[in-house]
Design brief:
DNA-binding transcription factor activity, 5-stranded parallel β-sheet, single chain, isomerase activity, alpha/beta, 285 residues, elongated, Arc Repressor Mutant, subunit A, Rossmann fold
């Protein structure tokens, strides 16, 4: 048994289980197998439920977690919940029976959409749309899984107005991209959870250029909203493995639709110009 208990910032449960696995008694090894099969379950199960899943007693569960260096099952569960909240793929999802997966996924997507869209403030929405319609330039930015959302909004806005492009072009450093921003420009920064280190510093530097910033993010964000002009909080967490981005995508689509409306005849004229050019180049089927 370890003589020191785990602190909040120490090794996660999955690593501890792997390290201890070879020396575990049979009962505790069954607990380990349950957890390694789906570490995210620990954030949601009670000690009694875990004991039943492994076919052991509650006392065996208690001994197992003490062997791993935790003071109790509850301390390990709190750590798993923290990791789940950060979006760690090891700690998201649950062992849902196959018969329920499609219906559960459908319900979770509906929940994500409703939770995200009902939080939008109509006044804030109008301000953002006005900025999208009138800003001299719009630059978009998104890292990791947020990147495809940044590409989506770039493509949508780029069909109805000029001067829309990614903030970071291939071969550029972050500094070179940020330096191109100017006062009055609009940066659409998408930063859903599991953001890279230094994310807040990038938002801060864009703000220092005098540009307005629309930050599309989730409830785990800290500090960066202090430097943004507007922040929209999207729900991303569900019971399934992998975050849901349907809410964020719906927000971006809504902004594109409303911006097209705000641009009026100018937007229609530019869209027609783009379509005519596509036809001359025979780009689409």
């Amino acid at each position: 048994m370890p003589t020191k208990t785990a602190d909040a910032g120490s090794a996660p449960i999955s690593r501890r289980v792997h390290e201890a696995y070879g020396s575990l008694p049979d009962g505790e090894r069954r607990i380990a197998d349950v957890l390694l099969g789906n570490p995210g379950e620990l954030a949601m199960l009670t000690a009694t439920e875990l004991a039943a899943a492994a076919g052991v007693s509650n006392a065996t569960v208690s001994r197992f977690f003490r062997r791993l260096g935790y003071e109790s099952f509850e301390q390990a569960k709190r750590q798993a919940r923290r990791l789940r909240e950060t979006g760690s793929p090891l700690y998201t999802g649950s062992a849902t029976p196959a018969s329920k997966r499609i219906s559960d996924l459908l319900q979770s997507e509906v929940t994500v959409l409703e939770s995200t869209l009902t939080r939008l403030n109509p006044v804030t929405l109008r301000e953002i749309v006005e900025a999208m319609a009138t800003a001299p330039r719009i630059r978009t930015l998104g890292y990791r899984n947020s990147h495809f959302l940044a590409q989506y909004v770039t493509a949508q806005l780029g069909q109805i107005r000029r001067a829309v492009s990614p903030l970071l072009l291939p071969g550029q450093t972050q500094a070179e991209g940020i330096a191109l921003m100017d006062k009055g420009d609009l940066a659409v920064v998408i930063g859903l959870r599991r953001r890279p280190a230094g994310f807040t510093s990038v938002v801060q530097e864009i703000s220092r250029r005098g540009a307005r910033i629309l930050l599309i993010t989730d409830k785990t964000i800290r500090e960066a909203p202090a430097h943004a002009t507007w922040t929209i909080d999207c729900q991303v967490e569900t019971a399934q493995y992998s975050d849901a981005y349907s809410g964020a995508l719906a927000v971006l689509r809504l902004l594109a639709v409303e911006t097209r409306r705000a641009l009026g005849e100018a937007g229609q004229t530019y869209l027609e110009e783009v379509e005519a050019l596509r036809e001359r180049l025979q780009e689409l089927e």
